[in-house]
Amino acid sequence: MRRAVVTVLLLWALVLITQAAPAADDLVITLNHGRLRGGYVTVKGTERRLKKYLSIPYAQPPVGSLRLAAPQAVEPWEGERDSTHQPPMCVQDAEIVVNFSKTILMEFTPPGVSEDCLYLNVYTPAEASRGDKLPVLVWIHGGGLVMGAASQFDGAPLAAYENMVVVLIQYRLGILGFFSTGDEHAVGNWGFLDQLAALKWVQENIDAFGGDPQMVTLAGESAGGISASILILSPQAEGLFHRAIFQSGVATLGTYTTRTPLHFAQIVANLSGCDQSSTEQMTRCIRGKSQEEIIATTKKMTIFLGAVVDGVFLTDTAGELLKKKEVLKVPVMMGITNHEFGWLLPKSFAPPGWENGMKKTTNYLFFFVLFQVSMANGLITDEYLKNAKTPEEIRDGFTEILGDLVMTLPVVTVAGYHSDAGVPVYVYEFVYQPEVLKQSRPSFVKADHADDVGVMFGACFWDDHVKIIGIITEEDIKVCRTMMAYWANFARNGSPNGPGLVSWPQYERQKQEYMELGQAQTVKKKLRKDRVHFVTVTLPQKLEQLHTAP
Hints:
The chain has about 550 residues and is an alpha/beta fold. The chain has one domain (about 30-360, about 395-550): Alpha/Beta hydrolase fold, catalytic domain (Rossmann fold, 3-Layer(aba) Sandwich), CATH 3.40.50.1820. It is about 40% helix and about 15% strand. It has helices at about 1-20, 95-105, 155-160, 175-180, 190-205, 225-230, 260-270, 280-290, 290-300, 320-325, 345-350, 360-370, 375-385, 390-420, 435-440, 450-455, 475-495, 530-550; strands spanning about 30, 35, 40, 50-55, 80, 105, 120-125, 135-140, 165-170, 210-220, 245, 255-260, 305-310, 330-335, 425-430, 465-470, 515, 520-525. The longest helix has 30 residues, at about 390-420.
């Protein structure tokens, strides 16, 4: 009898222990290709716990014969794979990432750089399980298609506060991601094909994390926004995502889609010391370069490599596909900050001392040569600087020129095309300045490029491998929660609207209503109306007059 009582007591104690602490096996998840062991994380401001699974392979390492080739399906592995460490960054100049982090006051130690980099990170509520069908947000990092990593972000706050699954992906960058000769020797689009492979992985595996493969939102900022905007034009992306968000970047920006990549390939080959006598020779030479040589060439490049019209991934340029309404019919949300070229971007290329003021005659050519705005330079400068008298006013005018031509106008144009295609479109302008950034930048800077990213990710709650350096105010937290809610609602319903939020109307060509996101949220009409009218109507008329003048 005594033995029976002892046995019962031991069993009861075991039950209590099991209930008090989650079993380690709760962190093991079984996917199609093998098992992963993740880790727990608690988000600041909430007691809710999450599971995070880092460095999940979604394709084979693109090395050796797979360099400059389409990604191949990941191979199965035996046993448990440790998914508690950040993946290596794809091949890039890591110093840029370090400097970027310092500029935006982010505490972040970049992992190493490796060609073996096709990994993704998943954040999901701790209690989530198969069949829960939570909304999924897949994030493509920015960085001009030459830099960036999944580890620059923490998806935990968004997943915790908004009860969703967040996936952060990596893709090949620069030469290894986008080198193309325009023929069979190097078709190109490797980085975009990586993104497609990651989305296919999500379709096949996200249910294991509690996510709904039929409720996937593809989102990105800057080059990530451009990527998402390009993928929505690809027939190969059909069914892989169901909403899309473009933040400060769309497919029509610059030369990010081209029919004729050979010229760019020749520039890369020349900088790499490769024989340019044939596309086969160029490709073989680039394939044979070491990682260090690839990075050295990258540092010398002044061109951007992007998407190629190959007849499969892209059947035409972005502009033409949008005009023909050949887009995936999914709801889209897109927007800009109100000072896209206020600080972060000019710091990387503007002449020394630009922030103290500029001289119209000496500095405007530098900007326009960089962005290749050709014969319209004088007319554009006259319009934007007509009232500028001081060096500071000239500086402010040039930051406006670049922001409008490179970001605002393309976003407004693409929003109109998607609206014409008959899908729900939501447009925003982000105007909020977190207090910590205000104190670290000149007073003339407003909401800068990428300022919206930390807010929608809930960076005010980051407290893991990335942190914001400085004091987070109550107002910062309030705006964070509002942005997170809008983004999560869009991921969940295809509309940002929800209880307790200012109603955000759909964008359409007549009213052109958009949401101004700041301390308050305000519905406005016709984003940068006068500037858009000048560039789209007045400028072409003036150029035509110049062409026809005797």
